[in-house]
Write a structure and sequence with these properties.
alpha+beta; Alpha-D-Glucose-1,6-Bisphosphate, Chain A, domain 4
């Protein structure tokens, strides 16, 4: 099982950071993927529980992620629900006010159906997600 943790601070307040990262399409830069919204949430929030996105990374087949928990300005949790060699995938973004800014604590955990695939995916995610999150500050404001 792989477990990745990313901590990032932003100058903007939680509602701005949350609002930006809740939009599926804005995650393209974070993951280095092409992202297509598949459906809106079923809980009354466009990006809430039940909303789904398709991710396409490089030459690999696309896969789907679905939001499983959504607490405005506090939490977004999601899982891969279709088309991936990964299993037991869970992503969770927690947003906490820090002074006038926001602390993002982002955890991703997963294993793979095929030996070694999780290690390769983890290496790519470590690099892309850390770089993507670090570069978002000016775009959020």
């Amino acid at each position: 099982m792989q477990r990745l943790i990313f901590d990032q601070d932003y100058a903007q307040p939680p509602e701005q950071v949350f609002g930006y990262l809740a939009e599926h399409e804005n995650l393209a830069e974070v993951f280095g993927a092409k992202i297509t919204r598949l459906k809106d949430g079923t809980d009354g929030n466009r990006n809430g529980v039940g909303s789904a996105r398709e991710l396409k990374v490089g030459p690999f087949p696309p896969f789907e992620e679905t939001v499983t928990e959504y607490v405005p300005n506090e939490l977004i949790a999601y899982e891969i629900t279709k088309g991936s060699p990964l299993k037991g995938h869970h992503g969770e973004m927690r947003f906490t006010a820090e002074g006038t800014g926001t602390h993002l604590h982002y955890e991703i955990s997963f294993a793979s159906k095929l030996p070694g695939v999780d290690v390769i995916v983890a290496q790519g995610l470590k690099k892309n997600v850390a770089k993507g999150l670090a570069g978002l500050g000016p775009k959020i404001g």
